Amino acid sequence: xxxxxxxxxxxxxxxxxxxxxxxxxxxxxxxxxxxxxxxxxxxxxxxxxxxxxxxxxxxxxxxxxxxxxxxxxxxxxxxxxxxxxxxxxxxxxxxxxxxxxxxxxxxxxxxxxxxxxxxxxxxxxxxxxxxxxxxxxxxxxxxxxxxxxxxxxxxxxxxxxxxxxxxxxxxxxxxxxxxxxxxxxxxxxxxxxxxxxxxxxxxxxxxxxxxxxxxxxxxxxxxxxxxxxxxxxxxxxxxxxxxxxxxxxxxxxxxxxxxxxxxxxxxxxxxxxxxxxxxxxxxxxxxxxxxxxxxxxxxxxxxxxxxxxxxxxxxxxxxxxxxxxxxxxxxxxxxxxxxxxxxxxxxxxxxxxxxxxxxxxxxxxxxxxxxxxxxxxxxxxxxxxxxxxxxxxxxxxxxxxxxxxxxxxxxxxxxxxxxxxxxxxxxxxxxxxxxxxxxxxxxxx
Length: 445
Fold this sequence. Notes:
Blueprint: E1 9-14, H1 18-29, H2 31-38, E2 42-48, H3 52-59, E3 64-66, H4 69-74, E4 80-83, H5 89-100, E5 104-107, H6 110-127, E6 131-132, H7 143-150, E7 156-162, H8 165-177, H9 181-190, H10 199-202, H11 205-219, E8 229-230, H12 238-246, E9 249-260, E10 263-274, E11 286-293, E12 297-304, H13 308-325, E13 356-366, H14 371-381, E14 386-391, H15 394-398, E15 404-411, E16 414-415, H16 416-427, E17 437-441
Parallel strand pairs: 1-2, 1-4, 2-3, 4-5, 5-6, 8-10, 10-17
Antiparallel strand pairs: 7-9, 7-11, 9-10, 11-12, 13-15, 13-16, 13-17, 14-15
Helix pairs in contact: 1-13, 5-6, 6-11, 8-9, 14-16
């Protein structure tokens, strides 16, 4: 039987917001090319959305629109369910019900997979169906495909990614305009780059979900978001971005996962990155992921991490994969997390206190003799060596006749627990006038 005789793959869409509408439009616009690639046509025949009128307006004639997602799952004619509702609640129940009904699932829901992925992938394995989630990480960038298939010859050493467009937009604006975080956040909300409740983005949670999924695929470990260290950008000040620049660095919120002697690092936090690295120059709402493999060296993936059609691009790529593999023996499909399910590793996630990295410290101190000696003495007593010291003149920080100054210290590598202890001792000095700012430094060499 030639591929052109194969019946269409019929798709049910749960939630037709921004990404759902983009998916419908791109599938319609490029249907002929998609059919030539997939070997059969792919059609969205049913949509569930609480706002039936809006959904009907988005899809037009010929598509059944219902207000209950379970009607889509119960329809025996539907082969694939796309879940675009988001969140952990009803989405989890619906994805598990779709799997139980023998449907393949495509989802953009990183939160759901980072927290409940182990349960969902095991259920899919039992039922012999696929759960595809390219759209869950870095929008239109095919990073899941690259990690799972393109780089499968490699022992992955580390991944570092700008995987949240909202925070990257905010940091870019802070740098360009010299403004503080709160001011830029309001502007980002006005422009639609940040949600009304931006907590998940600015506190690093969204990036944490995404790096958890990449870590699982890179190292063949279960998804375990609860073990990730997550820190956002809310405490960053405009002067930190300026000082970093003077020292030859940019500040980026990075999701990092790394293979080390005692396990796997899994962390999200602001990082100083050398300005000469490509990833340091990713501006605005763009995303970029750097992957270091033993055979390939460094590879960089760059593109739009959100938006209607970029995310739709990833959703439809998953549909094409499913169309191609729909009739394949489940044992011969690409495993959900790249490694065969019975060959997953139990390497531990390294606690943040055991992570080794270098640091940028900013201390607001009294402008008097002997302060620097006390601070460097504490670092020396903890065995932390200094890479560079920058003292901003008093008039630069507080105006003419100021009695305080900013002391900037870059350190060499040390273990986080030792730095925590040194910070506690420095903070208790009477000449240290404000909470110390600590930002980790990543050379990404």
